[in-house]
Amino acid sequence: MLQRPVECRVFTSWVFTQRAKDAGLLPSMGAVGSCYGNSMIESFWGRMHTELLNRKAWRTRLELANAIFEYLEVFHNRRRRHSMLGMRSPVEYEKLYEETKLSRSEF
């Protein structure tokens, strides 16, 4: 019988949450039993696989780590446009947010 390597309930259990809090961490997931808890990160991993990981084979872990860092810090956060941000990059969206916040505080 085949089983999934990781059962979702393991990561949303009360024990897991308490251990994370005891370690000074705040788990960023939905409520126990919520089917939406990991949807954003699953969507992100899917995009990263399509846009980066499935396009090349890396010779070393360091080469892969550098490629992931560049994907996140250079492409994903600075240049990639996100539909939920009005087709702006996160950097553009944050800049617009700060400008809007400043212009509202002037009144």
What does this structure look like?
This protein has 107 residues and is mainly α. It has a domain at 48-107. It is built from five helices and no strands. The radius of gyration is 19 Å and the shape is extended.
Give me a quick take on this structure:
By secondary structure, the chain is an all-alpha fold. 54% of the residues lie in helices and 0% in strands.
Strand content: under 5%
Sheet with the most strands, sense and barrel status: none
Structural class: mainly alpha
CA(first)-CA(last) distance:
66 Å
Low-confidence stretches: none
Using the CA coordinates, give the radius of gyration: 19 Å
Task: Please outline the helices and strands.
Blueprint: H1 8-11, H2 14-22, H3 39-51, H4 61-76, H5 90-105
Describe this protein with a few key phrases:
5 helices; mainly alpha; 107 residues; single chain
